[in-house]
Amino acid sequence: MALIAIGGSVGAGLFIGSGSVIQVAGPAAVLSYVLAGALVFFTLRALGEMVVAVPAGGSFSDYARLAFGPRAGFTIGWVYWWMYAVLVAAESVAGAAILGGWVPQVPGWALALAVLLSMTVANLVSVRFFAETESLFSVVKVATIVAFLLVGGLWVVGWWSGSPGPGLSHLWEHGGVAPNGWVAVLAATVVVLFAFGGVEIITVAAGESEEPERGVASAVTNVLWRIGLFYVASILVVVMVLPWDTVEPGRSPFVAVMERVGVPGAALIMEVVVLVAVLSVLNAAMYTSSRMLFALTRQGDAPRVLRGVNRRGVPVRAILLGTVVGYAAVAADYLWPGRVFPFLVASIGAILLILFLTICASQLVVGARVRAREPHRLTLRMWAFPYLTWAVLVGLVVVFVAMAVLPEQRQALVASVGSVAVALVAYELRRRWGARAPSEGVLEVPGRAGAGGLRRDAGAG
Hints:
Elements: H1 2-9, H2 12-15, H3 18-25, H4 29-53, H5 60-68, H6 70-102, H7 108-125, H8 127-156, H9 182-195, H10 201-206, H11 213-241, H12 253-261, H13 266-298, H14 316-322, H15 324-335, H16 340-346, H17 351-373, H18 387-405, H19 407-433
Helix pairs in contact: 1-8, 1-11, 1-13, 3-9, 4-9, 4-11, 4-17, 4-18, 5-6, 5-17, 6-7, 6-13, 6-15, 6-17, 6-19, 7-8, 7-13, 7-15, 8-11, 8-12, 8-13, 9-18, 12-13, 13-14, 17-18, 18-19
């Protein structure tokens, strides 16, 4: 489960996107990663409390349903599905772009199709095959990051190939720690927050895990600090090895560091690793979108026909529907290169932020309800409840407002809010003409204590 979470969150956002963050914040990009990582860490802790206290097969969509009713559960479930369906398309095209540099004679749309088909097969075989594939991808990424930290750190202190090394001087010699001001550090935090997307996949996987609640609690608690260490330590090595103003947006700073250190074949090695990262995130995105859709069918919030599973327990139809946006992106890449795709990516720009806001708000309600009615369930507690949850919620709201203020983030925010509006309209249509009434109950995990008396009622909250 730990490797699944790492696989979903350590991708091209770190290996390539971090260059743009460093250009905005300078060496203080490290602080941007620390701030964003803290918000995500505490959000995951809040989610972990609910996962252990009220095991639910639909994960956070069920907690939103439990806290605020079926409208919230329906909306966040479908918006989350959309985010990962678009991410499947994004990673397919990104993988094709990398492969295109190796086999330029093959058109990009054909490479994207090949990438998408290969990961579809990996998800259709079985849950075990998905987990083994994701674990292998994650091991490659973790090994690469560890090697990067070791080589870069040795070079900085002058213990690599006799190089004197710059020490810590690059942190302040090129305009200071925050050369573009502290507002830029906040702006970079907005961007960094989305790089941590994927850690919540662990709670979706928990619904199919045979691990006891104690194992889930351990994974939820320990995974993020490992990921945070990878991110923060990696960025610290980058800004110590390279002057921040030499980092080029769109080009992997990891490659630039390895070239500066003098590692032969660094560019090719990192291209391979980035491709593995892309395939890993694509694999995890396909898994997550299918499981969320499957949960929605069980609640009656999606067509029942999508509920079917094969003899290995794989929701084949839900997986295939999750790839539809990907195949549409392949067609768009063929018909209108570079036009449709940027809009699709923009439409998911703030959905992760909306998800985190929903998790914290749900935990305030569900956490209070558990403490009042069944406190024995709290084997994993959110620290300083409810004050820390409120503090995280305020921090996320600040990021939301920052997105509205920053011109470069405003389009993504508007597009993402538009996705939520579409889901709300869809709920009203489902409520009026659906085959059955919306459910306020959660999808309990077989063999584990369910919501019981925690379900939402007139006196709840």
